[in-house]
Design a protein that fits this description.
By secondary structure, the protein is an alpha+beta fold. The protein contains six helices and 21 strands. The strands form five sheets. Strands 1, 4, 7, 8, 11, 12, 15, 18 and 21 form a nine-stranded mixed β-sheet that branches. The protein has a four-stranded antiparallel β-sheet with strand order 3-9-5-6, with no helix packed on it. Strands 14-19-16-17 form a four-stranded antiparallel β-sheet, with no helix packed on it.
């Protein structure tokens, strides 16, 4: 009997302490700092989040929703399996902060004393990277139809750079988020013949190389440089440019470590790959890219490259269809970031590093891929790569009726531009000596032709 009374008393005391903690937690003292660190980058006017959380008056109506989102780890968005890799941009929330947000909501979401508020975060209006050194903008608005399929639009814009520029930070700002699904900014170097028929500043749809529309979408590498080759600058072909920066649901701006930068050569153009999606209302868009140049000496040049498989066929109803890709590094480099990319049927994604004569090593595992959050994962410490190291990728796709996002479980699915088609790209960022040619990272050494014997 005494034991039962003791247990009951302990439970009552614990509940009383919890109640006291809940009512002692206030927005001004406890919650505002958490929202500043974790949420306000997106949850403010002009950004992707649906509501602002800059003030108590804005946050109070969402207290219960915030509680649920952090408990189920829907927010902040982070999908890396914690058993593999350490990441410098890990936004997963510490358990202590989750507990504080839950206690605040359970305790009535009290405001507290406004004198306890921390100084507000300062943002540059319209930019997350700060005030850009250069802004490259579409010269005219693009009219997006209210309905129908809109082919990828490409806009070639001369940078006007008279000298080489090293870009450390870059950010894409859509003019109309309601109709812009994604944007990729490519660098077209002087002398390239890629998009040679495009007029500067005017939206352009490249010709299909194949008569069959389905095969055309799958195989037309001119219209879709993402899948053109294992790496954008792999060969001496004057084809698709290399990626500078991207925008997609949930993707954050490109911010490289100190001493790292992407080279934009003098006289280069930027090519905007625009994926518009009709939403029932006509719209206008005028997208721009902001650039911040390196202020310190650049010791490592960065290249964003894809390990791609564009030859897959996902059968109707398949719930766990596997697709693999790989690429071999042919010179010394450092691996600094990874970014898996699939569409609505994407289920999970894994990157492995295979060093010469060594067993595969899992670098990143995303067990629950979310098409609405296209994230780059930046290593806490770069991984050093030697010649012959392979980057392997494995993705699984759910084309079954059990996938609530599946556009059509009865269809056979191949590579294609549109969201109801699929892609399998293991984007990765490598850093290397600036004196090295990018193509040397992926192109095998050519053996000299055998000379005829003189005997």
């Amino acid at each position: 009997m005494r034991t039962r009374l003791a247990v009951l008393a302990a439970a009552i005391a614990t509940a009383a302490v919890a109640a006291t903690v809940s009512t002692s937690v206030t927005y001004s003292k406890d919650i505002a700092p958490i929202l500043q660190r974790n949420c306000q980058g997106c949850h403010r006017p002009g950004e992707a989040a649906p509501m602002s959380l800059l003030t108590y008056q804005e946050a109070r109506p969402w207290a219960k929703a915030i509680r649920e989102a952090v408990l189920v780890k829907r927010m902040p968005p982070w999908f890396a399996d914690p058993h593999f890799g350490k990441w410098s941009n890990d936004v997963s929330m510490p358990q202590a902060e989750v507990d504080t947000l839950v206690a605040w909501a359970d305790g009535g979401a009290r405001e507290g004393n406004p004198k306890d508020l921390p100084p507000p975060r300062k943002f540059v209006d319209g930019w997350n990277i700060g005030l850009p050194d250069a802004v490259i903008e579409m010269p005219q608005e693009f009219r997006v139809a209210a309905s129908g399929t809109i082919e990828y639009q490409y806009v070639v814009i001369p940078t006007g750079f008279t000298g080489d520029k090293w870009v450390r930070m870059a950010e894409i700002r859509p003019g109309n988020r309601a109709v812009v699904h994604h944007v990729i900014g490519f660098i077209r170097e002087p002398g390239s013949t890629w998009m040679k028929d495009a007029k500067p500043g005017e939206p352009f749809v490249p010709r299909r190389r194949y008569d069959d529309p389905q095969r055309g979408r799958e195989a037309n590498r001119e219209a879709n440089p993402e899948g053109s080759r294992p790496a954008p600058e792999r060969s001496n072909e004057r084809g698709a440019g290399s990626m500078l920066v991207g925008f997609a649901p949930g993707m954050q701006p490109q911010v490289l470590p100190a001493g790292h930068a992407i080279l934009v050569k003098a006289g280069s153009d930027l090519v905007f790959q625009m994926h518009y999606t009709a939403n029932g209302k006509p719209g206008l868009d005028r997208t721009k890219i902001g650039l911040i140049f390196a202020k310190e000496p650049v010791t490592r040049r960065v290249l964003i490259a894809p390990a791609t498989n564009n030859k897959f066929v996902i059968p109707p109803g398949a719930g766990n269809h596997q697709v693999d890709s790989e690429i071999t590094i042919q010179s010394s480099a450092s691996l600094i970031a990874l970014m898996p990319h699939m569409h609505l049927r994407g289920k999970d994604f894994e990157y492995r590093l295979v060093r010469p004569a060594a067993a595969p090593e899992v670098m990143l595992r995303v067990p629950k891929y979310n098409f609405n959050w296209q994230l780059f994962y930046y290593f806490d410490k770069p991984l050093e790569l030697t010649k012959g190291t392979k980057i392997e990728c494995t993705a699984h796709f759910d084309n079954s009726p059990n996938n609530p996002d599946n556009p059509d479980p009865a269809s056979e699915v191949k590579w294609g531009d549109q969201s109801w088609e699929e892609m399998m790209i293991g984007w990765f960022s490598v850093a290397f000596d600036p004196s090295m040619k990018p193509e040397d990272l992926f192109q095998r050494e050519r053996r000299p032709a055998a000379r005829p014997s003189s005997d």
